[in-house]
């Protein structure tokens, strides 16, 4: 049996710990700004109306069964997922340079990509390093370490401007060894809410091309960030257009509200070359082996829901409307929070609340201010000062602004 010292007690996951503390708090004023899940204006989870419709269609299908999916997942889902990212007219798709595998949501896609790179993207038998933005989604660190890929970081968030440290980022990418893996958030960067502008993406791509770096895109918020699916895929499409070979981890948790259904996809895109289609076929064959050993085949229900919507023109249009509802409400909460802080004359510059994009805002509140908000005001957010904007609504935004005002004075 295990000697107890062989298995040290691990700390609780900070985010899920926060969720537990929020649930246990009896205060009627409590506010949950922790986990990145959309809430409606009543602070309730929102089942997208289009998802309800797809659910209805599936339930009324007499031929529906619970058989295994193929190893690579539901083809009607993965093919539309790749079109959604790359654009239906993408030459990469026409030239069969894309291998797509359904995964356990975005986390599973990042993991499958990391596992694939750990096995096949080496230099002299050793794993290459992955460069993560500082800060990044905390799980990136554990996922890459678990498969033995060394981790380094590149500067990303500028504490002074509360915007992008583009010069620091470019410098670090230029200093990294050639052929490094660079993890990029495609849009709505978690946790900062700060994205490069199209011009900055071009500069990043130039440095990465000069260094022959390997882009690993993580996209968990397509359509959720700006409300526009094409715009939120702009960076990925630009890199593919520039001829990069790259991989993409795609989540449908946020944009379909399918969090617990674990619908996601991993894509490998080869550079244009006479061997591209063959390389892609080989990669797909290896991904299938990895997938088989890890999960055998992916879960069916979330993929069915997304596939039903993505393959029906009317439902697809309706989904876009649902996306605009979510992104629109979040943007209106940014405006409301900003206005309240202005009204209160809260010390400091709060422009970043409006300028940041997506699910999160990196407020700039310090750890001690965050803890004060929790202890004195029952407001729950991560220690780094990140708030999930979806936790705000017309009923609590003033309460939150007043609490912030008190703790920063
Ligand atoms: N990547 C980023 C940057 C995220 O923010 C998230 C979710 O918070 C994910 C990936 C994966 O989420 P999921 O596994 O729920 O799709």
UniProtKB/TrEMBL annotation:
Q: Give the Gene Ontology MF terms in alphabetical order.
A: L-aspartate:2-oxoglutarate aminotransferase activity; pyridoxal phosphate binding
Q: Name one GO cellular component term.
A: cytosol
Cofactor(s) the record lists: pyridoxal 5'-phosphate
Q: What are its GO biological-process terms?
A: aspartate biosynthetic process
Q: Which InterPro entries match?
A: Aminotransferase_I/II_large (IPR004839), Asp_trans (IPR000796), NHTrfase_class1_PyrdxlP-BS (IPR004838), PyrdxlP-dep_Trfase (IPR015424), PyrdxlP-dep_Trfase_major (IPR015421), PyrdxlP-dep_Trfase_small (IPR015422)
Which domain of life does the UniProt lineage start with?
Eukaryota
Q: Quote the record's miscellaneous comment.
A: In eukaryotes there are cytoplasmic, mitochondrial and chloroplastic isozymes.
Q: What is the official name of this protein in its record? A: Aspartate aminotransferase
Organism the protein comes from: Rhypophila decipiens
């Amino acid at each position: 049996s295990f000697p107890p010292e062989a298995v040290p007690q691990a700390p609780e996951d900070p985010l899920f710990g926060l969720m537990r503390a929020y649930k246990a708090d009896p205060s009627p004023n409590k506010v949950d700004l922790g986990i990145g899940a959309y809430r409606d204006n009543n602070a309730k989870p929102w089942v997208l109306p289009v998802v309800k419709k797809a659910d209805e269609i599936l339930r009324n299908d007499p031929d529906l069964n619970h058989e295994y999916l193929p190893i690579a997942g539901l083809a009607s889902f993965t093919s539309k997922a790749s079109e959604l990212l790359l654009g239906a007219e993408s030459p990469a798709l026409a030239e069969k340079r894309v291998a797509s595998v359904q995964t356990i949501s975005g986390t599973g896609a990042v993991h499958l990509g990391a596992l694939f790179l750990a096995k096949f993207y080496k230099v002299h038998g050793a794993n290459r390093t992955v460069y993560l933005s500082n800060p990044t989604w905390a799980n990136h660190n554990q996922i890459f370490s678990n498969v033995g890929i060394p981790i380094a970081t590149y500067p990303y968030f500028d504490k002074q401007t509360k915007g992008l440290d583009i010069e620091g980022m470019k410098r670090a990418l230029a200093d990294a060894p050639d052929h490094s893996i660079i993890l990029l958030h495609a849009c709505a960067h978690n946790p900062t809410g700060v994205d490069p502008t199209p011009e900055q993406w071009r500069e990043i791509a130039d440095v990465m091309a000069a260094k022959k770096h390997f882009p690993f895109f993580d996209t968990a918020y397509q359509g959720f960030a700006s409300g526009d699916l094409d715009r939120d895929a702009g960076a990925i499409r630009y890199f593919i257009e520039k001829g990069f070979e790259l991989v993409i981890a795609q989540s449908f948790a946020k944009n379909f509200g399918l969090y617990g259904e674990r619908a996601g996809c991993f894509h490998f895109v080869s550079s244009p070359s006479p061997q591209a289609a063959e390389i892609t076929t080989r990669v797909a064959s290896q991904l299938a082996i990895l997938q088989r050993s890890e999960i055998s085949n992916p879960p069916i229900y979330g993929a069915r829901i997304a596939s039903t919507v993505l393959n029906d023109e009317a439902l697809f249009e309706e989904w876009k409307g649902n996306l605009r509802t979510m992104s629109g409400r979040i943007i209106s909460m940014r405006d409301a929070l900003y206005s309240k802080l202005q009204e209160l004359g809260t010390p400091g510059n709060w422009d970043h609340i409006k300028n940041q994009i997506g699910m999160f805002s990196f407020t700039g509140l310090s750890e001690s201010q965050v803890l004060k908000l929790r202890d004195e005001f029952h407001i729950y957010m991560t220690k780094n000062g990140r708030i999930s904007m979806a936790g705000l609504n017309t009923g609590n935004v003033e309460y939150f602004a007043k609490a912030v005002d008190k703790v920063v004075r």
